[in-house]
Amino acid sequence: MHGGLRRRQAAPPAGTGRAVGPGDHRVRAAGRGAAARAAGDRGGEHRQRGRGPGARGAAQRRRSGRGSVKRAVAAARHVDHRTVTPEIRLVDPLTADVDEHHELHLAVSKVDYPNVAPPTREAVLIRLRNPDVDLGESVAWTARVDGRLVGALAAQLPVDGNEHLGMVRLVVHPELRRHGIGTLLLHTAAAALRDRGRVTVEVSRVESNSPGDRFATALGFRTATTSVFQLLEFAEVDPDIWDVPTPLGYRLVRWIGQAPEHLVESYARARHAIGDAPPGGSAWRTPTWTVDRVRPVPRPLSIWQCPLINDLQTRAY
Predict the structure, then answer these.
(1) Which of 61, 169, 234, 305 has the greatest number of C-beta atoms within 10 Å?
(2) Orientation of helix 98-112 relative to helix 121-129, angle to 10°
(3) What's phi and psi for 237, nearest 5 deg?
(4) CA gap 57, 62 in Å, rounded
């Protein structure tokens, strides 16, 4: 997760820059002009249906949210796109309305990634409240039409040799695209990134030949790296093919939160080793993972790690 190209995202301030996006997804890079945008967020999390108390109320709130967006869409259809003036706000992700953002991401996922499981509310909550700490400080903007959330942009400011770079993720409600909302969000973010010394912007998860791909091209982005995402449907695969013995001399170790003290050094080496993927044209440079870098990483997400441990050398793979 941390060593591949999936993070090679960015959208640049006005000026030269580059963008990256995995795919099937093309990594787009920014050239002259403002910044780039990934049309939608892949959100490969599996939906979980709940029937506990409050499920009905949550569904009612979601239906209400959809209606609100539809009213904004209907109003926008009756006017020239130049008269649709979205309100752009710098927002605090910690206080953002998760249900609103979930509705937006569901709409994007349905159109842009129909063959991928839509993001759960929990997944959207994690993106908002706990962005990837490896990518540095996070700033976010929203776009509203008649008070309704119709677009969102999140930018992260990596350090450790990447102080020139801004990593951007942008989504716009499918029914309100081509009204200049995405462009306005990107221009707003580009100005803020430029003020912080970020001269290159990268965006990822731009699917080839998609509206997002064409959008990025129109803004001067170029493809920096391409990747292929593969999906596995558990129900369609014989689980017996995974029933293989653990290699001699290895064992699986699981933990929640920070790496155990007796493994932290080998874990740091492993984190550094998986950063050897070719960067292609991406401006991202993999930082050097050391024990000091691993230890301070907060783990509010309680992500569990399950590396393979070699009993003979005590090295994490």
Answers:
(1) 169
(2) 110
(3) -120, 140
(4) 9
pLDDT digit string, tens, across residues 214-234: 999 999 898 888 888 888 888
Q: Is the pLDDT of residue 77 over 60?
A: no
Which is more confident, 109 or 61? 109
Average pLDDT on 61-67 reads 35
Q: Distances from the Cα of 130 to the Cαs of 37, 50, 301, in angstroms? A: 21, 23, 7
Q: Let me know: does 251 contact 311? Beta carbons within 8 Å.
A: yes
Q: 């982005």: which residue's tokens?
A: 221
Of the listed ranges 54-63, 116-125, 241-250, the least confidently predicted one is 54-63
Residue 17: CB atoms within 10 Å? 32
Would you tell me how many other CB atoms lie within 10 Å of the CB of residue 176?
A: 24
Neighbours of 22 (CB within 10 A): 24
Cα separation, 220 vs 238, in Å, equals 46
Q: Please tell me the distance from the alpha carbon of residue 11 to that of residue 87, in angstroms, as a whole number.
A: 20
Integer Cα distance of 88 and 270 in angstroms: 41
DSSP state of 300: T
In the chain, list all ranges with CATH 3.40.630.30: 25-226
DSSP 22: -
The CATH superfamily assigned to 25-226 is Gcn5-related N-acetyltransferase (GNAT) (3.40.630.30)
- The C-alpha atoms of residue 94 and residue 300 are separated, in whole angstroms, by 13
